[in-house]
Write a structure and sequence with these properties.
18 helices; 468 residues
Length: 468
């Protein structure tokens, strides 16, 4: 169930870009005029995330998950049937709001069902949709647009999603955390407005320019609202976002690694197709088949990490994974106009090998020292951090390209601009790797072995058979 939900939501977030030219022709608009169709999804997703933990605790993870998935599928159907741009943007916004509840609800259900040592094994399967979805989305989108119509990039969610709703309604057991307090409306308004503003500014910065009034206003407003939200949430007894969880060092440090470490990782994934198609002038098909090997590298490493996690701990695995990411990015920085596709594919595979040592260990370790009643809140905060890091990645890449490109050639960055961008990402990965080696991972290793940090036996969490 969780694998299916994750796959659908990630594909939907990536597949729409492929359909933009076809949508523009249908509505007699330029592709640039459709920017809202893409941006409204992450903005609304970020705005919905803060409410997810309270909703899970109040109504249960199963009910929230199925309701959000139902709304997501209904809005997908409406997006496909949209008669004009305004309708498409509005229904796309509903998709984003629904997805903002899907990710934390699915994570909360998953991690409250399995104990720490089982989570390591389950993460081997959860990594599959996270890696395959971004690789599959462009190819699937191209096939649907070319052979059917752009409307099918939204309709395609239904064949997977409807059976998932039925399965979840029949087989999933209900799970609730502790009874939540009074709904924190002020916290929701502040945090949703802050995250939405920041996400808009970060997404639009590369397109409109970082000095444009709309972007500057959004980022400044977002920073002010975010500061106000943090101060308010720390003052009240029952906050919407339990920011006090960041007092736990392992939870705080793993989230910091996720926030910063995702920028070079996802930045490399974003930069690769640009280098191949714009820098080398290759086709979209050549680009897709050359970036895809990364997924195989991740899937290979995750299987190895699952075995080593309880023995060596997340600190060494994450630190080495990020160090390898940095080293491979330095290899990418040597690529030029004459670099062959198989060389590039080899580098992408090696990049995936390094990435596989980062994703699963950070997620599992972040929850190792938290109590079960905090899992819904922790999953929400993890989602906020990952979405923010994911938004920063393309913004960082585009900014690096712009800074390395002469003004006269702004529309066509030279090869050196791509090389400089890879070097900047490598430096960021190296710095994050050094920080990762300071993780206090003793409790995480103990939890993975099923023992306490002092050497006793950890009390296993209750398992729900229907989640298998």
């Amino acid at each position: 169930m969780c694998v299916c939900v994750t796959f659908i939501a990630i594909v939907d977030g990536a597949i729409t870009t492929v359909a933009l030219p076809s949508i523009a022709r249908t509505f007699h608009l330029t592709t640039a005029a459709l920017d809202g169709v893409v941006v409204v999804y992450p903005v609304c997703l970020a705005m919905a995330i803060p409410a997810s933990a309270w909703l899970v605790e109040r109504f249960g993870a199963k009910r929230v998950l199925l309701t959000a998935l139902g709304a997501f599928l209904a809005s997908s159907l409406l997006c496909g049937a949209a008669a004009d741009l305004a309708q498409l943007v509005a229904f796309r916004a509903v998709q984003g709001l629904s997805a903002g509840l899907l990710f934390p609800a699915a994570s909360s259900l998953l991690y409250s069902t399995f104990n720490s040592w089982e989570q390591v094994r389950i993460s081997r399967y959860m990594i599959v949709p996270q890696q395959m979805a971004p690789a599959v989305a462009p190819v699937l989108g191209g096939l649907l647009v070319d052979h059917l119509s752009w409307r099918w990039v939204f309709y395609v969610n239904l064949p997977l999603g409807v059976p998932a709703v039925v399965f979840g309604a029949v087989f999933l057991a209900e799970h609730r955390g502790h009874r939540p307090g009074r709904f924190d409306l002020t916290g929701l308004l502040l945090s949703a407005a802050a995250l939405g503003s920041v996400m808009f500014g970060v997404c639009e910065g590369p397109n409109r320019g970082w000095s444009s009034p709309a972007v500057v206003t959004a980022l400044v407003l977002g920073a002010v609202l975010l500061t106000a939200a943090v101060l308010f949430e720390l003052r009240i007894a029952e906050p919407l976002l339990r920011l006090r969880l960041f007092a736990d060092r392992l939870f705080r440090d793993t989230n910091l690694i996720n926030l910063v470490g995702l920028v070079p990782i996802l930045g490399a994934m974003y930069l690769g197709p640009l280098f191949l198609q714009q820098g080398q002038g290759r086709s979209a098909l050549e680009s897709g088949t050359s970036t895809f090997p990364e997924a195989f590298g991740v899937l290979l490493t995750v299987q190895i990490v699952g075995v080593l996690y309880s023995r060596v701990g997340p600190r060494i695995i994450i630190g080495c994974g990020l160090a390898m990411v940095s080293g491979v990015l330095l290899l990418f920085a040597t690529c030029d106009q004459d670099t062959g596709l198989w060389t590039f594919r080899t580098y992408m595979f090696l990049l995936g090998v390094g990435m596989g040592g980062v994703f699963m260990p950070t997620t599992v370790a972040s929850l190792a020292t938290l109590s079960r009643k905090d899992l819904a809140q922790a999953s929400t905060l993890n989602t906020v951090v990952r979405q923010t890091g994911g938004a920063f990645a393309p913004a960082a890449v585009t900014t690096a390209l712009v800074l390395s490109t002469p003004t006269a050639a702004a529309a066509d960055p030279p090869i050196t601009a791509y090389q400089h961008a890879y070097l900047a990402l490598a430096a960021l990965a190296a710095a994050t790797s050094l920080f990762a080696f300071t993780l206090p991972d003793g409790p995480a290793r103990a939890a993975a072995r099923g023992t306490t940090a002092a050497g006793g036996t950890a009390r296993p969490k209750r398992r729900h058979e229907e989640a298998h």
